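Methods — Computational structure assignment.
A single polypeptide chain was analysed. Its primary sequence is given first, followed by the predicted tertiary structure written as structure tokens.
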Amino acid sequence: MNNKVLLAASLFFVSALSASAQQESFKKGCAVMDLSIGTPTSSGCDNREVVMPPVTLTLDFGGASGFIKKRSERGKKSSKNSKNGKGALGFGAILGFYQDDCWGWDRYHRYDYNYWYDADVYNFVTAFRFSFHVEPVKNMDVYLGLLTGGRFRYWEYNEKYYPHYGSDPKGHAFCFGPFTGMRYYFGSVFGLKAEFSVDSGSGFPNASAGLVFKLKEGSSKK
């Protein structure tokens, strides 16, 4: 399912390159902050109850922009036409948090019996992200990129039960994968977003939605 979503988004992204809108919503020098809530992720536990779904804070900065020109504009040196290019590079970071209540049976290592464990599991996720943006229609920012980072998991066990002695109780994990999304602005500052990524068990949600705040407008100069 995740691969199909990413494939569909990629096809839409490629078709957006031929659209006529200029690159204005995300360009060099801009700064954008997103606050999102997402679908529950893989827990790695026998059983769990979602206490808090993934909440993420994203900060993206605009890099080089306007470098994709239409054939009719290639070779023109006027400053006016230099602003009509499409495409923009982005870089930034994402911070996330979610909480699960995990429980299950563990086999005791020295004796032939199982015991019950129960714990609140706190998950912190952080990653750097790099993206490419296009603007198919005015005020719509469509992007595709890669992220790399890690998840840090902390277990707080219920004192009535034994701790979990699994192969990796803390469950720290490296994360790397693609993501795609869209932001739509209702003015110069505020907007909404939807984003999709591949949940490889590292803590990032398959799908998320939230609010967008443009902290800084970009420059028209490349």
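Note: The longest strand covers residues 47-68.
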